[in-house]
Amino acid sequence: MSESLSHPSLSGNRGLLQAEGLIFETGSPTRTGVDLPAPKGHKDRLGGLGRRAPLDLPGLSEPETMRHYVRLSQRNYAIDLGLFPLGSCTMKHNPRLNERVARFEGFADLHPLQPIATVQGALELMDELAHWLMELTGMPAVALSPKAGAHGEFCGMLAIKAALAARGEAHSRTRVLVPSSAHGTNPATAIAAGFIVEEVPGSADGRVDLEAFRAKLGPDVAALMLTNPNTCGLFERDVKTIADLVHGAGGFFYCDGANYNAIVGLVRPGDLGVDAMHINLHKTFSTPHGGGGPGAGPTVLSAALAPFAPVPHIVQRSEGRVLVEHQEGTSAYGRLCAFHGQMGMFTRALAYMLSHGADGLRQVAEDAVLNANYLLARLKPHFNAPFAGPAGTHWPCMHEALFDDSTLRAAGVETIDLAKALLDEGYHPFTTYFPLVVHGAMLIEPTETEPKRELDRFCEVMIALGERANADPAALKAAPLLAPVRRLDETRAARTPVLRWRKPADA
Ligand SMILES: *Cc1c(COP(=O)(O)O)cnc(C)c1O
Q1: Domain 97-354 carries which CATH code?
Q2: Structural domain boundaries of the chain?
Q3: Which residues does a 6 A CB cutoff place in the pocket of ligand 1?
Q4: Quick check: helix, strand or coil at residue 230?
Q5: Greater confidence, 47 or 298?
Q6: Residue of the nearest CA to atom 12 in ligand 1?
Q7: pLDDT tens digits for range 422-454
Q8: Cβ atoms within 10 A of the Cβ of 474, count?
C-alpha cells in the first residue's frame, strides 16, 4: 500500500509538490515586482482625495509571482496529464490544430462591434459551423449564441415557451417532464424558464419507464427533457415512441445533447423527433473545458421551433453576410447574451469537424462506444454494473460505463473511498454518485481518444483497488495520502462556502 512518510514534512511541501498559500497570505501590500524611483517634482492633483491606507493588494516580487502561479498550475489535473474518466463530461484529447486555428489573428483579434464588412470571414465561419451542426443533427435551424450546455437548454426552453405563447397555450402548458436519471441542469433550466418540473421514473433496465411516462402526459404538458444516450450510458430504445407520445399530447421534445459524442455521425436527432437540443461544443467537438476554457452550447431547433430562435441570425444578402440583431420581423424571444457567442469555440469546433470529415466524426462515436464497452467488459467481473446484464453476459453500453459500489459495501468501502484512492494513483476520479438513480454510482467515460494501453493501465489500477478494498478497507478509507489536501468536509464546503479572503483581525 502507499505509505505515509514516517516523519511529517517540515516545509509543508510533499516531495516536489510545493505547499502554497493564497496570494493574499503570501504577498504583502508594501512589496512590489517593479522597482521604479519615485517621480521627481511630483504634484498631488487629487485635491486631498488621495488614499491614506494601502489598498491591501498582495504585492510579490517577480520570482515569487512566477512561483505562485506555477505552483498552482501544478495542482491542476488535466487531460494532457492523464486519463480523465469523468462520466458525462467527455474529457477527450483536444488536437492542437484547433488551438492553432483559433489563435489566427483574423479570428482571435476581432471585436464584436467591428463594422460588419470587416468580419465577413468570421460570419462565413459561423455559417459553415451552423451548416455542419444542422447537417449532422438533421435539424433545420441552430442558435449559435448559447455559451454552455445549460445555457443551450435555456435557449431551447425559451423557444418552446415562445412557441406555446404563439399558440395561446403559455398559461395552460406549465409542466415539464424530466426522467429521474436527468442531469441536474435539466430540472434547473425548466424551473428557470418558469415551468413546473415533474419527475418520470426509470425502468429496471435504466431507461424511461414508458408506462409511467404515458400516464403523466396531459394537456398541461409543455415539454419532455430527455438525455439520449441517457446518463446511465444507455440508448433510450423507445425514443421514437416517446417523441410521438409527447407530440401527440401537444408538447415539445427537448433533448439534452451533452452525450452526443456517442452518436455523432450515426444518428440524426431530427430523425428521432427532437424539437430542440443543445450541443456541448466543448464536449463533443473537442475543446478544453472544466476550468480549461469557455464552453459553447449551440442549440438546434426543429421546423416547429425555428421561427422562435433568438437573435442574432446570420443572413446572406447581396452585399454579403449580415447579422439580424433585432427582434422586429421575427418571432424571436430576444437575445440570450451580449454579442454573438464564443468565437474561439466556433473556430475550434469547425477546425475539428473539417479535420475529421464526415467519416471521421462517425468514427469518433464508434470508437467512443468501443472504448467504453472495452472498459465495461474488463471491469464487470470485478464491480457491479447495474444495467450490463447478469454475470457472464455482455449487454453493451454506449459511450460510458456505469458501475456501483455494491461489491465494496460489505467491507465498509464506498464510491467516495475508491475515488479518493484513485487520486493517490495519479488519476482524476470517475463521476461519483451520479446518476442519482443508482446507489453509489461510478460513471466512467473513457472517450475515443484513449489508447488501449491507457485503458488497460486504468483498469488494472481499478481492479487492484477493488481487491484492496476488500482485503484492507482501512487503506481506502485513509486515502488520499499523497494529495495536497486529505479528505475535506465537502458538505460544509458546499453549504457554507467561504468565497472571500478576509484580512485577519490582528494584521
Ligand atoms: C455537461 C452536461 C450538461 C451541461 O453542460 P454545461 O456546458 O456544463 O452547462 C447538461 N447535461 C449533461 C448530461 C451533461 O453531461
Answers
A1: 3.40.640.10
A2: 12-30+57-72, 97-354, 362-494
A3: 88, 148-150, 183, 185, 227, 231, 256, 258-259, 280, 295, 297
A4: coil
A5: 298
A6: 258
A7: 999 999 999 999 999 999 999 999 999 999 999
A8: 10
Q: Is the peptide bond before 435 cis (omega within 30 degrees of 0)?
A: yes
Closest CA relative to residue 24, chosen from 58, 66, 63? 58
Would you say 137 and 269 are in contact if contact means Cβ atoms under 8 Å apart?
yes
Most informative mutation of 256, 281, 443 for ligand 1 (most atoms within 8 A of CB): 256
Architecture of domain 362-494: Alpha-Beta Complex (3.90)
d(CA 419, CA 454): 18
Separation of alpha carbons 477 and 306, rounded Å:
53
Q: How far is the CA of 47 from the centre of ligand 1 (A)?
A: 53
The label of the residue with cell 458501475 reads 403
Work out which ligand 1 atom sits closest to the CA atom of 297. 7
The string of DSSP letters for 187-227 reads HHHHHHTTPEEEEEPBPTTSSB-HHHHHHH--TTEEEEEEE
Run of H or E residues at 421: helix 415-424
Place of cell 498552482: 72
Whether residue 136 contacts residue 361, with contact meaning beta carbons closer than 8 Å, is answered with yes
pLDDT digit string (tens) for 277-304? 999 999 999 888 876 568 999 999 999 9
The strand pairing partners of 17, in sequence order, are 14
Amino acid at 242: I
Query: ∠176-182-187 over CA atoms, to 5°?
Result: 40
Number of neighbours of residue 500 by Cβ within 10 angstroms: 5
Amino acid symbol at 144: L
